[in-house]
Each structure stands twice: as structure tokens, then as C-alpha cells.
Amino acid sequence: MSKTFPTDANRPPLRVFLVEDSLDVRELMMENLAMIPGVVVTGVSESEGDALNQLSELACDVLIVDIQLKKGNGISLLRQISEGDRVSGTLKIICSNNASEVFRRAGQQYGVRHFFDKTSEFPQLFALLKDLSGANRAYSL
Predict the structure, then answer these.
(1) Is 71 among the domain residues?
(2) Would you place residue 8 in the very low, low, confident or very high pLDDT band (cuts 50, 70, 90)?
């Protein structure tokens, strides 16, 4: 039996929620996300508490989290999300300049599937999101 993939016109957008405290990095990421066809940013936050509040109201397919936030931190956010099952089925990504093994393992414990170093791996993050927004997206998450 062959699978039928939706056409571009019928495919829902890939909804991304971004948790990043640096205004400059957040703007850079949003500019890059806006250039990827089929990707929309459904929410943005710079703190743990605000992200939790927004995620209880907004749906997203991809959650991108920094570790250090204005208030709280990304690991704690991921822990609370995993305990409350707020975003089940959401692809969780850490994008941080704290790229130590300790943070990578902690992220994996809370469902993070990808970890990108903010200082050098932006191209890989955006390539992943571009791939996910393509025809095979529903089968890749």
C-alpha cells in the first residue's frame, strides 16, 4: 500500500514555539524561521513561567528551548512540561551555548531529541526545521 503525502497547499504549517531570553538571538532565529516555507512561529517567550503559561494555551509541533532564561531555566521548563504532558507529541529541541554533556543528558531525560550549540550550529537547526516542514514531516517527528 502506498502512502499519499499532502500537497503544499493542504499541508498544515510546522508550528514552532521559541523560548529564548536574548533579544538579538531571538530576532535572528525568528528572521531565519520566517524564511523557511511552511514554518510559523506560534509563540515566543523569554522566561520559564511565561513559556509554561503560553504552552498551556498554544499548540506547537516543535519547541525550541534555551537553557539559560531571564527567569527560570530551560531544563526546569522541560521537566515541568514532561511531568504535565503539556506538549505530548511535540519535538523538543535545545539550542544553547551551554553545550556540555550534562545538559545534553538532562535534556534527553525530558524528551529532547536534538541539541544544537548556539555558537556554531544554527545552520543545522534551520536545516532540520526545513526538512521537517517538507512533505515527510508527519512521518519524521
Answers:
(1) yes
(2) low
Structural domain contains residue 95: yes
Domain of 34, in residue numbers: 14-136
- Give the pLDDT band (50/70/90) at residue 26: very high
The model's pTM is 0.86
| Mean pLDDT, all residues of the chain | 86
Is 2 part of a structural domain of the chain? no
Which residues, 6 or more positions from 39, have their beta carbon under 8 angstroms from its beta carbon? 13, 14, 16, 33, 129, 130, 133
Q: What DSSP line would sit under the chain, residue for residue?
A: ----PPPTTTSPPEEEEEE---HHHHHHHHHHHHTSTTEEEEEEESSHHHHHHHHHH---SEEEE-SB-SSSBHHHHHHHHHHHTTTTTPEEEEEES---HHHHHHHHHTTEEEEEETTT-HHHHHHHHHHHTSTTHHHH-
| Residue 5: inside a domain | no
Total domains in the fold of the chain: 1
pLDDT in tens, 29-44: 999 999 999 999 999 9
